[in-house]
Amino acid sequence: MTGRLHRLYRGETNIDFIGRKLVWFALSGFLMVGSIALLFFNGLNYGIEFEGGISITAPIASDGPLADASTTDVEAAIRAGLDGINAGDAQIQTAEGDAGRSVIVQSKDIADPELQQEAVNIVADTVGATVEETDSQRIGSKWGGEITRKARNALVIFLLVILAFISWRFEWKMAIAAIAALAHDLLITAGVYSLVGFEVTPSTVIAILTILGYSLYDTVVVFDKVEENTATLASTGKMTYEDSANLSMNQVFMRSLNTSLATLLPVAALLFVGAGLLGATTLEDLSLALFVGILTGAYSSIFFATPVLTILKEHEPKYKNVREKTIRDAQRAEARVTPALAGAEVPTPGATSTSSASRPPRPAGGAAARARAGSKKAKRRKRR
């Protein structure tokens, strides 16, 4: 076990990544189909920044009715007041600060300006604050739609720029494989968001753009090594494109693993410790997108992007000819070895001698080989 880990760390592994591509594709297909099903049935929980609504922040008065109330009691009291205006979906959080406790209320159901003002009055009265001390931000659905449109346009422009850059730096087939890996990562991240029900906020969009950059970085590192090896091995006919790509992935596998683990550890601390144990729920949307995206990005660069690239490249005439030549050479070598194996004498256990009459006839190939060997020895003796 220690020896295997040592070889893994030194990049001396011989894992057949490409040969098992159907396994990786089956796993990715299962995750993507599951994500599509979740998005179709559950959808995404968009925040008020995308759908519109109201956000209210009010201090909990030290001499008010909720001064000594627990967080649960504060939430129950505010929710009971908002139920009268059909704001049952309101998200209520309490926060501690130098000035004391405060409450943050967000609701997507309240779109009417009059109802929004009534919600501000209800929250202020419940916590014992004045309307002047209460800060409210009203977001219309039109503004949320504008934000959604801009985020979508930014993503499309980002993908087009990446497609052009990788096509220029490497080739268009590598660009297609990289974009396919990005779509894989985006879809799975969206599926996880739909599964856990976290809100999609501007922080989520920022995290997604971040993980796209990370995923591309890992993919480009692998592609750079693939290009280097294929230029010296596959292009010269010494190795098939699939074998040279497999060699490249074994060489960079430990580097990708180290980079992923070093990035995942602080993000995991942000998600599980910060958002989970310490209750910093405002970090949930950011940390979840980063965690899932980095994890899927590390997987897709090795197990998805490169196998897709190999399928595209193996259909090129140049590499197709190399593969066919390799198969022919293997068949010829097997044809030469088979007669030799058939002509080899296998001694019977316990037998000390065998008459020449009982011996099976030797193939001509084996005899010819021995004759050639004897002739070579005679020539060497003459030269001496």
Beta-strand portion reads: 5-15%
The order of strands across the largest sheet is: 3-4-2-5
Q: Count up the helices.
A: 12
Average pLDDT level: 78
Which radius of gyration do the C-alpha atoms yield?
Answer: 34 Å
Report the helical percentage: 55-70%
**Multimerization status:** single chain
- Uncertain spans: 350-379
Silhouette: elongated
Q: How widely separated are the two ends?
A: 54 Å
Total strands: the figure is 6
What does it look like?
With 384 residues, this protein is an alpha+beta fold. The protein is 68% helix and 8% strand. It has twelve helices and six strands. The strands form two sheets. Strands 3-4-2-5 form a four-stranded antiparallel sheet. Strands 1-6 form a two-stranded parallel ribbon. Helix 4 packs antiparallel against helix 5, helix 6 packs antiparallel against helix 7 and helix 8 runs parallel beside helix 10. The chain is elongated. The protein starts with a helix and ends with a helix. About 8% of the residues have low confidence.
Secondary-structure map:
Elements: H1 2-9, H2 21-41, E1 45-46, H3 48-51, E2 53-59, H4 71-82, E3 91-97, E4 100-107, H5 113-127, E5 135-139, H6 141-169, H7 172-196, E6 199-200, H8 202-234, H9 241-277, H10 284-314, H11 317-343, H12 364-383
Parallel strand pairs: 1-6
Antiparallel strand pairs: 2-4, 2-5, 3-4
Helix pairs in contact: 2-7, 4-5, 6-7, 7-8, 7-10, 8-9, 8-10, 9-10
Task: Give keywords.
12 helices; alpha+beta; 384 residues; 8% strand
